[in-house]
Write a sequence for this structure.
């Protein structure tokens, strides 16, 4: 079974690699692990062997639906795979058609019944499998049954429409800006572009406590020295291009109330473009300092991903080596498979490792020679026009409001004896009233995927992580 999961995982990595290369994730990248390596017991999964992962994406629905697109592609290209995806509020694939769903399908009865198969949404009807059926029974039925387990046409149509703009939409949702930042930050982002999301998160989630005071001193970054032929001198700012998602840029620009560190050289506002570049760079630098110090205080500075030796140890505990003596030919062959799998999959897990334990990686980069010369004379890409900014803010608020409305409609089914068969349009505020809307922080954490050559994705309530589990039905 472990070898099957290894093989399945590598196939999946091949499928998604072209889509996720250079993608800037909001909090954590999309990652999968075989359950036999990173065992996370979950009573809802009935100990079914699977691939699993976890991805925080906060309130960025683009990240959520991009992951759904990836899962759909996986199920379309590996026909033996079934995907189940849910979030902190339940079966979000059903939300957009909540008022039209059959009366038996409620937040309680839909659990373990909504899947993605062959690139489509499918729902296992209660008439085929009773509401008390176990997950493994439902998955087995959906794999082997000749019955139609597809979702109603309106559900499938809404699903297709929702992901139809991907992967092209990924490029549209990226934004590029020029900023003035310390050489140390420039080097960190040069080597690890993914850390821009943690820097922005650090700045936007700051408070007025000790961490904010530390960011005023800038000891980790701006307080460093630069090596020159004339000796060491105080670190200077360099001009670089930085990529981030539009959602990140909106957050960064909207942070207007803050105290500029006295040690950060802000130019006069008369030089408008240079001023904006430096101000944005200051936010990124402060956020990086806050993120760095916070992670050290929380004791999360070390590397997060399992090493090859820890993987072997975990596999041994799970019976992968079948009690074979060390040095035997069969054990050596099994060990070789593990090593090959580790080498191929670690390319994708490295980004996850960096974002979950960034301090050790940052320290490695900061040990490199610190010179502004390598950043001068570079052909910098220009800042992209941000005329879309205010429309994007409105779209973001509308998306949040629409999701809240969908959740309410779906939850209402529990209290209604006979749900209306007539479509109830979602009522949203007019654009002029959007600025008056106070949005509750909708944090999503933990989307789960199960693959038996089947996949399940879940997001747990009011947190911010997507967990994925994939299982294989082949022995």
């Amino acid at each position: 079974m472990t070898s099957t999961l290894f093989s399945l995982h590598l196939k999946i990595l091949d499928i998604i690699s072209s889509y996720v290369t250079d993608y800037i994730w909001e909090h954590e990248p999309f990652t999968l692990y075989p359950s036999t390596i990173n065992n996370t017991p979950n009573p809802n999964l009935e100990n079914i062997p699977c691939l699993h992962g976890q991805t925080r994406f906060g309130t960025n629905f683009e990240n959520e639906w991009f992951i759904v697109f990836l899962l759909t592609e996986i199920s379309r290209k590996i026909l033996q795979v079934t995907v189940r995806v849910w979030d902190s509020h339940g079966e979000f694939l059903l939300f957009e058609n909540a008022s039209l769903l059959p009366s038996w399908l409620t937040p309680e009865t839909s659990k373990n019944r909504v899947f993605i198969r062959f690139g489509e949404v499918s729902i296992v009807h209660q008439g085929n499998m009773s509401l008390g059926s176990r997950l493994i029974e439902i998955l087995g039925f959906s794999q082997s049954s000749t019955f139609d387990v597809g979702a109603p046409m309106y559900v499938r149509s809404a699903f297709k429409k929702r992901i139809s703009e991907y992967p092209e939409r990924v490029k549209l949702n990226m934004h590029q800006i020029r900023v003035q930042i310390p050489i140390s930050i420039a080097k960190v982002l040069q080597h690890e572009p993914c850390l821009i999301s943690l820097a922005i998160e650090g700045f936007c989630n700051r408070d007025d406590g000790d961490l904010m005071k530390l960011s005023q001193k800038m000891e980790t970054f701006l307080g460093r020295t630069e090596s020159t032929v004339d000796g060491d001198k105080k670190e200077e700012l360099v001009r670089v291009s930085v990529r981030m998602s539009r959602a990140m840029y909106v957050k960064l620009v909207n942070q207007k109330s803050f105290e500029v560190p006295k040690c950060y050289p802000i130019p006069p506002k008369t030089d408008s473009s240079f001023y904006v570049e430096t101000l944005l760079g200051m936010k990124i630098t402060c956020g990086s300092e806050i993120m760095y110090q916070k992670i050290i205080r929380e004791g999360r500075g070390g590397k997060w991903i399992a090493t090859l030796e820890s993987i072997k140890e975990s596999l041994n505990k799970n019976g992968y080596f079948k009690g074979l003596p060390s040095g035997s030919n069969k054990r050596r062959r099994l060990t070789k498979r593990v090593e090959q799998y580790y080498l191929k999959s670690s390319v994708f897990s490295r980004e996850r490792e960096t974002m979950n334990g960034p301090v050790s990686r940052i320290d490695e980069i900061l040990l490199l020679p610190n010179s502004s010369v390598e950043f001068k004379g570079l052909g910098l890409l220009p800042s992209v026009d941000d005329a879309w900014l205010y429309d994007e803010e409105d779209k973001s608020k509308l998306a949040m409001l629409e999701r809240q409305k969908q959740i309410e409609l779906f939850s209402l089914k529990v209290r209604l004896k006979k749900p209306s068969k007539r479509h109830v349009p979602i009522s949203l505020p007019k654009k002029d009233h959007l600025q008056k809307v106070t949005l509750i922080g909708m944090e999503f954490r933990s989307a789960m995927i199960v693959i038996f050559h089947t996949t399940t994705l879940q997001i747990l309530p009011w947190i911010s992580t997507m967990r994925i589990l994939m299982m294989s039905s082949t022995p």
Summary: Residues 417-446, 454-475 have pLDDT under 50 and may be disordered. DSSP finds 14 helices and eleven strands in the chain. Residues 308-354 form one domain. The chain has three domains: 2-166+400-423+437-472, 173-302+357-386, 308-354.
